[in-house]
Amino acid sequence: MTVYISNAFSLSMLTPPATVKVVEASEDEVRRILSSQFISAIGHEATAKIVTSRIGVSVQVNRISIQLKPSDILVVFQLLTRLPEGKILTEDEMKQVQAKWYIVTLQ
What we know:
By secondary structure, the protein is an alpha/beta fold. It has a single domain (about 5-105), classed as Rossmann fold (3-Layer(aba) Sandwich), CATH 3.40.50.11170. The chain contains three helices and five strands; from the N terminus they run E-E-H-E-H-E-H-E. It has helices at about 25-35, 45-55, 90-95, and strands at about 5, 20-25, 40, 75-80, 100-105. The chain has a five-stranded mixed β-sheet with strand order 2-5-4-1-3, covered by helices on one side. About 20% of the residues are buried.
């Protein structure tokens, strides 16, 4: 099993046929899931900083493609607003960005 964190989910992460389960998660659940080893697939510095600030777990920028396997877990940090290109947020601004967490698994 591999645990990933990303700021997006794409059908290109799957090998068809696949059945996907997506559930909303709390920040506490996310902290628990990411408390041991995980691979970041967050490709933007600002997003990695927001995630790190929110959950208190260091998330590195790592612009990679993911291919999910049935035992894998994907934690998705979904921004509800689009950040302006090149915008550097203060710590307070990072905490105010609206977002949701999802856990994606294959069935």
